[in-house]
Structure formats: structure tokens, C-alpha cells
Amino acid sequence: MLSQLILDIGSIWSKYGMVYLTGIGNTLLLAVTATLIGCVIGFACGILQTIPYTRTDLWIKRFLLKLIRIVIRIYVEVFRGTPMILQAVFIYYGLPYFTANAVRFTDIWTVSILVVSINTGAYMAESVRGGIMSIDIGQTEGAKAIGMTHLQTMLYVILPQTLRNIMPQIGNNYIINVKDTSVMFIIGFQDFFAVHKMVSGAVFKYFPSAMVEMVGYLTLTLVASFLLRKLEKKLEGKGNYELVNTDQLVMTAGTYSYPDGEAPFAEKNREIGGGNNE
Amino acid sequence: MSEPILEIRHLSKSFGSHAVLKDVDFNVNPGDVTSIIGASGSGKSTLLRCINMLETPTTGEILFHGKDMTSGRVNPNEYRAKVGMVFQSFNLFNNMTVLDNCLVGQIRVNKCRKDEARKRALHYLNKVGMLPYINARPAQMSGGQKQRVAIARALAMEPEILLFDEPTSALDPEMVGEVLDVMKSLARDNMTMLVVTHEMSFARDVSTRVVYMADGVIVEEGPPSQVLETPKELKTRDFLSRFLEK
Q1: Would you say residue A188 lies in a domain?
Q2: How far apart, in whole angstroms, are the C-alpha atoms of residue B52 and residue B81?
Q3: Does A253 reach chain B within 8 Å, measured CB to CB?
Q4: Number of domains observed in the structure of chain A
Q5: CA-CA 20 to 30 A from A14: which of A32, A56, A247, B27?
Q6: What's the CATH number where A16 sits?
Q7: Is pLDDT above 90 for A151?
Q8: What is the pLDDT of residues A235-264, one digit of tens each?
Q9: How high is the ipTM of this complex?
């Protein structure tokens, strides 16, 4: 049995190896691109959704901000709540149908990236929202208190921490994308799974090809998990549990010049002595 | 008499039906070190947060150099950049080192050049005694150290007035001293400060004026010797006697 399987896989691979690899390449490229674009969409939604307003703001500002929140809400619910396969059908076949061929995408890659990105974005918007909520409000106030705008607060303070916190969710989304992009066969996208259907149809051997697919998908996701863990570690920052060596830092710090030309830590004496330095 | 930096006019703030501040009036002149004392829930912190526009006042005006900041015509971010704030819970940016905490506002808000910003940040970090820790992250420091960095961060923006919201209340007793020392040295440098505090020694020895608040109104204000030692109002006397008993 096992030797037969190995033989079958060998013969399939020798003939269709390159086709499988091209399929893997397409799946990988679509999943990576769409996950990245999806993340950008998710973070953009996160920034837009959290723009603060108070009841003393102009009505137009309040109206627009409320509208933005409602639009994002609808976007999330619609794209999270319908199958990606149908979304692909709607965009690829539906748009030309409804617009009498005025609007149509002819490039399968464009439609595939569009559909998977928008889908990932809908999930990511919720992940980012959760990530932003998990950062204590104090840091937002600290940023506000030194005059930072909402966008600056988000870009430099909140989102870097959010990114770290939602790395596991980004990993989830990426791995789901690696597998679920196979539904793009509906519009003719040649991903890894489409190769299986093509090959098994051609050689009339269903299971050996499925075995190749299994191993292929698992390899893709395991490598992704490994790399994501590495990235997570890196985002954690190197010195997280490392105590700062005071002596060393005094040496480094002492090489700077200060406006008032004093040695580091001279302030202790100054405070007791009551001198001023400005 | 110089022009006041800050004039608070008929300031009120309600959360729902609960009035936290009721028609508060007072001025801050350059060089003033004002201590605001009072029981918890008397509206001290809300007053400070309204001054920095972290809370929107329900009614009333906040005049900064004579210009009303509550009118909606002034960009609150420009105003906040000139009014520093130090929080009870430090509120440092956890994703940045000590140095970056002191740089980000200067570079992004004040649009300083990097080398200038760095020089200024190091200067103020030295002033608060945190220069050796420039590469540390907030999670690696004690409360007192974090608060000193928070003060340096606020100073690096070169604000015209510095607000302190119970800066020592979240600290272990042995760390209170190091933060108060920094504040004392700022007072000596004629920094204009508005300090909500429970540290009576700071109010008495360092501040030039003490404001006592209760139930959302200013009950009494004046020089520390007068308010703390010979208070005119019964409420103030009650508060002080209860406080000193503890």
C-alpha cells in the first residue's frame, strides 16, 4: 500500500512537479499580498473608527464621524457575514451583469487580490478595534497632553502596540488565507488546490495528489507559523526583561554635551544646595 | 503685576446630572506655584483635566493669554503643546525608550530638528536624574523613575505652564521624595505650576498659593501660610484637621 502510494506520488511529481510548485507560488503570493493589504485596511478602519468627537463639536463633524463608523460597521458585517466564494462571483460576474458590461475586471489576479483583501480587512478591522481597546486610555491621554493629533497618537503610540498585541490574529488570518484562497477557483484562479483538481482529473488518481496537497499546505502554514513567532519575538523588543546597566549607561551618557555643561546626576547636589541652573 | 497666563472664568463641568465643577474662577500668573488641595471627589482633577481640555467644560471659559480655548476656534493640540501635564499614572508610551518618550512630542508636534530635540531631551532627563536610563523602557522602571521621566517628557516640550495631577499618589512612600525633589527644583527655576496634591509639605513649603476645593467649588485660596495655618473657612479647617490627624 505505502510503496504504491510513494510510487504514484513519484510519478505524479515527476510529471506535474512544476505545476504544483506554480500553484503553491500563486497561493503564497495571493495569501501574502491579500493579508498585507487586509492589515492596512484593518488599521485604517481602526484609526477612522476611533476619531474622538464631543457634543460641542460642529454638527457636520459629528455627522461625518458617525457616518464613518456606520459605513465601517456595515462593511465589516457584510464581508464577514457572506462567503468569500460568493463575493468573488458578485465582483467578477455580477459587476458586468449589473452595469451592462460597463464595469468589469478582466484580470483574475486583480479580482482575487481584491476579494481576499477586502475580506481579510473586515476581520482585521475587528481585531484592530480590539487591539486598540486593549491599550489603556492613559497613553492616549499622555499623547494628547503633549499636543499630538489623533493620527499622530495612533501612528506613533497606539498602533505599534496594537500591532504587537494582534500578531496572533494576523497569523490566524494569514493561515486561513493560505487555505481559503482555494475558493477563487470559481473565477478560474490557478492556486495550489486548482492544480490538484487538474492533475487528479488528468491521471485518474485522486488520493496521491491529495497527499501532495496535504503536505504542501501543512508546509506552507508551518513555515508561516514559525516566521510569525519570530516576528512576534522581534516586536516584543530586545531589552524587555533585561535590566539596564546603570554604570555603562552613565559612561555613554557622559559623552554628550549638555546645555548647562554639568555632569550627569549633578542635580542631586543642586537640589539640596538650592542652586539653579537656568 | 504681570498678565495672567491662564484665566478660568465660570467653569462648570457635569457628568450627566452630576455637577463636578460649579462656577470655578481663578487665575494663574507667571511663576505661580499653585497647590490645589481637597478631599477626593472634590473636583480637583477634573479642574486640571478641563484646563488641559482633556475634558470639555460644560460651560465657562479658559483664557490662555487672553484667548478663549473653549470657543472651538483654537486648535486644542497647539494649546496642549504649551500646557504640560503630568499624570498620577505616568502615562508613558510603553512602546518607546525613555529617550524616545521625550523626543516624540518635540519632533512630531513642535517640529524640532532631531539633534536639537535630543539635546533638549537629554538636558531635561539630566535635570530629573534619569539620564542613565535613556535606553530603558517604561516596563523596566520603578514608579518614581517613571514619574521623573514623565516630568522630563513634559518639560522637553518647553511648556509655559505645567499641570500635575496627583503626581505622587501612585508611588510607594520611599519614591515620593525623589519626585517632590524634582518638582521643588522646578519651582526654584520659576516654572509656572499647578499641582493637585495631597502632599501638605509641598503645599506649605514650595507653593506660592494654595487653593482649597470642596464639592466642586473653590472654598478658599491664598498664600500657604494663610490657608494652611490660619484658614478663614470652617470647611478648610475641618479638612485640614482631619488630614493632619491621619
Answers
A1: yes
A2: 10
A3: yes
A4: 1
A5: A32
A6: 1.10.3720.10
A7: yes
A8: 876 554 344 444 433 434 444 444 444 444
A9: 0.91
Q: How many CB pairs under 8 A join A and B?
A: 142
Distance CA B57, CA B51 (A): 9
- Amino acid A104 reads R
Interchain CB contact of A259 with B (< 8 Å): yes
Cα gap A58→A70, rounded to integer Å:
19
Cβ-defined contact of A240 to B122 (cutoff 8 Å)? no
Q: How confident is the model at residue B47 (pLDDT cuts 50, 70, 90)?
A: very high
* Structure confidence by residue, pLDDT tens digits, B85-99: 999 999 999 999 999
Average the pLDDT over B64-75 and give the result.
87
Report chain B residues whose CB lies below 8 A from the CB of A240.
Answer: 137, 139-140
Average pLDDT of chain A to the nearest whole number: 84
Domain membership of residue A53 (yes or no) is yes
**pLDDT at B218 > cutoff 60:** yes
Helices A2-49 and A159-180, packing angle to 10 deg: 140
CB A1 within 8 A of CB A176: no
Domain-embedded: residue A256: no
Q: What is the domain extent for residue A195? A: 2-236
Contact A35, A231 (CB under 8 A): no
Indicate the pTM of the whole model.
0.83
Closest residue to B78, CB basis, from A147, A253, A276: A147
Q: Which of A56, A152, A253 faces B72 most closely, judged by CB atoms?
A: A56
B177-206: b (≥16 Cβ within 10 Å) or e? ebbbbbbbbbbbeebbbbbbbbbbebbeeb
Alpha carbon A278 to chain centroid distance?
49
